[in-house]
Structures are given as structure tokens and as C-alpha cells.
Amino acid sequence: MVHISRRQGWFLIIGLVFLLIVSASVVSTTAVVAGRNMNRVAGSSLADVPILNYHKVDNFYHALSIPPEEFEEQMAYLAQNGFTTITPDQLMAYLNHDRELPENPILITFDDGYLDNFTNAYPIMKKYGFTATIFLVTNKVGHEENFMSWEQVRTMQKDGFVFGSHTVSHAALTKFSREEAMRELTDSRKELERQLGVKTRYFAYPTGVYNHQIEEMVKQAGYKAAFTIRYGQAGTGSNPYALERIPIFRGQHTFRSFFVRLNAAPVLERFGLIRN
Questions:
Q1: How many CB atoms lie within 10 A of CB 101?
Q2: Among residues 150, 159, 180, 181, which one has the fewest Cβ atoms lying within 10 Å of its Cβ?
Q3: DSSP 8-state symbol, 65
Q4: Angle made by CA atoms 243, 201, 48, in degrees to the nearest 5
Q5: Maximal C-alpha separation, the chain
């Protein structure tokens, strides 16, 4: 396992910042169809909060698949550097100036609800005392073999994991009629509430695609906030229905990429290179 402190690792940021800027611009371009400038408004005062975005923790060679040993290396880094995982409820209360957060807060999220979230990520996160928020595609959970079962979801829920909606089918909402898109939003929320017995307050846009009309529909469907795949940190000036995240990808040097994406975000924001 490679141990890199924040101070020791700044040279990585200097060497890779150009590549990160390029990748951030690509993510920004693909993540938002309309309303690219809706995320930031004046008046931000509290420190921003990083929100990590994962999909799979397995050994498949795919950009969205983080090998378990590399995922553990990332979780070990967070633990060694004093990060504390928080829930979306804690985040929103903080952004609304209603409560304080622990030192070095971080929100860890997963999209889709793959089986490896339970078999691989869950034990590792428990080892380090971490929790996550997982956005589920409700017609896949309990129906497709590479997705979690509802029983597994409820097991994680008992350990403090939070579950949100990623629609019924995982299709981009912009492809649907208004009526169809609203059904994707409301039916997935109702199924989550039926299966888990708690209100479903949070949503993640499938494929990261949304526009102002979709944002308004998410509000009307009863969600408290929504998460994008736009690179950046969430702050008091963020649009609660277009919250920024830090996507984590597999690469030739996955840990270095993780380190840079996590630690460079504040620097890039300070110089106006992200969150335009």
C-alpha cells in the first residue's frame, strides 16, 4: 500500500493538474445538457464539502470499476487523514446553516446499486467506520444478478447507509416526455419508500444529464436535493438540485488520480477553473 500525506502529495497535483483541468472540462460538458451556470450563486461563506462519486468496486477493467484493493487504499487514505463520512441530511443542514459538520467531512456516493457495492465496498467501508449514500435503479435492484437485492440494501441501511433514487430504468430523463419522466421520478421514490420504510429525499441524475425543466420536476416529485457528475465540491452557493461531485475513475495510476481529484478541487475552484 502506498502512503501519501497531503503535504507529500502536492507534487502530484503540480504534475497532473493540467490533465485534471482537461478531464474536468470534459465531465462538465457531458454532465449537464442545459444550465451549466446554474450551480453557483453569490453568497457562499462556509467551507465546501467534497462528495465522492463511485459506481463499481470490482476487478473488471472499466473506467467505472475500482479494484477492491485500490478502493481500500483510498478509504485508508481518508481514514489516515481524519475524514469523517456524512449523510445527505447532514450536508443539506450544513448548507442551510442549520448545523455544523465534523472536521474533514466527506460524503461518499455510489450510483446504480451494483452487487459489488455490497460484497466488496461495504466490508471495506465498515472496516474504516465509513458509510455511503447509494442511488438505486429500482427496476434492477432485486431483478438483475449483478445488482443488489432488497435484503442486502436493508442490511446496509441498518449500518447507516443511505439510499436515494437513480430512477426506475436509468435512462436519461431528457429522452422522456414530461409524463414519462415524472413517472421515473415518482415510481422509483415510491418503491424505495415501500422497500425501506423511510422517506426518499435524494436523487442522482442518470448518466448525469439534466436541464432546468428536469430540475423543476425533481423538486415537484418530492426530492430535497439532487446530485450531478459535474466535477467540484458542494458549498453554500451550490444549487441544491445540481450538487457537484468528484467522480472517481479507474486508470493506470488510480490512487494518484484519486488523490489529485480530491485535493485539487479547492485549488481549481479558487482560480475559477471549475464551477464556471
A1: 18
A2: 159
A3: B
A4: 30
A5: 53
Q: Which band of pLDDT confidence, cut at 50, 70 and 90, is reported for residue 62?
A: confident
Give, to the nearest 10 degrees, the angle between helix 6-31 and helix 254-270: 80
Q: Shortest CA distance to 234 belongs to which of 48, 18, 44?
A: 48
131 vs 212: CA distance, rounded Å: 31
The answer for residues whose C-beta is within 8 angstroms of residue 256's C-beta and 6 or more apart is 12, 16
| Cα first-last separation, the chain | 36
Q: What is the pLDDT of residue 138?
A: 99
Provide the strand spans (E) within the chain.
51-54, 84-85, 105-112, 133-136, 162-165, 202-204, 225-231, 243-247
Domain range summary for the chain, segments of one domain joined by +: 6-31+47-270
Q: Is beta strand 243-247 parallel, antiparallel or unpaired with respect to 225-231? A: parallel
Query: Does residue 2 carry a pLDDT above 80?
Result: no
The architecture CATH gives domain 6-31+47-270: Alpha-Beta Barrel (3.20)
Chain centroid to Cα 114, Å, comes to 14
- Rounded-to-integer distance, Cα 189 and Cα 231, Å: 26
Calpha distance 233→212 (Å, rounded):
20
Average pLDDT, the chain: 86
